[in-house]
């Protein structure tokens, strides 16, 4: 099996099970220079937009996620995959993502917990499930599902891969 990390393997597997419809905003996603093997199924998608501060990823919006340049309730899905730990003000970004999410929309958030520091450009924090739950509930999100990915052996393996 060829993959960059167990983390990426589990994330790709999780994303492959998602059904996306309508307009999707991929915050921190890479339109160019993609990572992993995940390719979204876009049969039901009308638009898939990328927001990133890194111009080399060819984003549709090259800007900070603290101020997303679109109207309120514009997107049916918002993704923040492996981004939260890199944000200096993640709570502000979640408020902004909530603003652009249409009623009944879905937000998908993934972030590492036991994983080496990986600055891109910075690595600021790791959150426990209780932090996500409390914050998302305070923002009136419903049907919150928190799912751990991996376990001890994949975490230790990925840590060693980064060390050597």
Short characterization:
It contains 4 helices and 5 strands; from the N terminus they run H-E-E-E-E-H-E-H-H.
Description:
With 164 residues, the protein is an alpha/beta fold. Helix content is 27%, strand content 20%. The protein has four helices and five strands; from the N terminus they run H-E-E-E-E-H-E-H-H. A five-stranded parallel β-sheet has the order 3-2-1-4-5. Strand 4 (75-81), helix 2 and strand 5 form a beta-alpha-beta unit. It is globular, with a radius of gyration of 15 Å. The model has no long low-confidence stretch (mean pLDDT 89).
Keywords:
164 residues, alpha/beta, 5 strands, 4 helices, globular, single chain, 5-stranded parallel sheet
């Amino acid at each position: 099996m060829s993959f960059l990390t167990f983390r990426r393997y589990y994330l790709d597997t999780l994303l492959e099970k998602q059904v996306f419809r309508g307009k999707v905003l991929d915050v921190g996603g890479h339109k160019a220079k993609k990572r992993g093997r995940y390719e979204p199924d876009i049969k039901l998608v009308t638009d898939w937009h990328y927001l990133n501060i890194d111009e080399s990823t060819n984003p549709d919006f090259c800007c900070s996620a603290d101020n997303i340049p679109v109207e309120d309730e514009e997107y049916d899905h918002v993704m923040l995959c492996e981004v939260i730990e890199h944000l200096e003000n993640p709570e502000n970004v979640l408020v902004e993502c909530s603003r652009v999410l249409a009623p009944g929309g879905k937000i998908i958030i993934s972030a590492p917990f036991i994983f080496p520091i990986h600055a891109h450009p910075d690595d600021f924090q790791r959150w426990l499930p209780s932090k996500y739950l409390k914050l998302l509930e305070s923002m009136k999100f419903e049907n919150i599902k928190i799912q751990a990915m991996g376990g001890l052996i994949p975490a230790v393996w990925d840590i060693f891969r980064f060390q050597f």
